[in-house]
Every structure is written in structure tokens, then in C-alpha cells.
């Protein structure tokens, strides 16, 4: 009745490709979508990545390059 549960340790990260389940060892590639991939599936178009790279790049450009509005020149 008075059982103390041991604190659950986080599971170690699996070293397998998310697409083909091939063991990747030290050469695994972490994607921005949060998964690990082998050399064949490392590119976003090869593993149907749900991460939106285009929107992130647009937001980064918008943040780093604010719109500069100059004052109007008064004519003489």
C-alpha cells in the first residue's frame, strides 16, 4: 500500500533514423522538426519535414531589417 515509486529517468535518445529505422550511431542528423535521421533522409524534402523553413526565414528577415521611413523633403 505504501509503495514509493522510483523517480522516472528520461529515456535515452534512440540512435535510429526516424524514417527507415536504420541505426545511425554518431553520424545521425538532428532536424529542426525534432527527429533524428540518417544520411539519406537528413534533408527536409527527403523526410517530409513538417517544419516551415520559409516562414521562419521570412520572420527572421522581418525582425532583422525594420522598415526605414525617411522624412518628407519640403520643397522651396
Automatic annotation (TrEMBL):
Keyword Iron: no
Stored InterPro entries: AN1-like_Znf (IPR035896), AN1_A20_ZnFinger (IPR050652), Znf_AN1 (IPR000058)
Record's keyword annotation contains Lipid metabolism: no
SMART domains membership: ZnF_AN1
Keywords of the record: Metal-binding, Zinc, Zinc-finger
Transmembrane regions listed in the UniProt entry: none
Superkingdom of the organism of origin: Eukaryota
GO molecular function: zinc ion binding
Domain AN1-type per the UniProt entry, residue ranges: 11-57
Protein name: ZFAN5 protein
Source organism: Odontophorus gujanensis (marbled wood quail)
Amino acid at each position: 500500500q505504501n509503495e514509493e515509486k522510483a523517480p522516472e529517468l528520461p529515456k535515452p535518445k534512440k540512435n535510429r533514423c526516424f524514417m527507415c529505422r536504420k541505426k545511425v550511431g554518431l553520424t545521425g542528423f538532428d532536424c529542426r522538426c525534432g527527429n533524428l535521421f540518417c544520411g539519406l533522409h537528413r534533408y527536409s524534402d527527403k523526410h517530409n519535414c513538417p517544419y516551415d523553413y520559409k516562414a521562419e526565414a521570412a520572420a527572421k528577415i522581418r525582425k532583422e531589417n525594420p522598415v526605414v521611413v525617411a522624412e518628407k523633403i519640403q520643397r522651396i
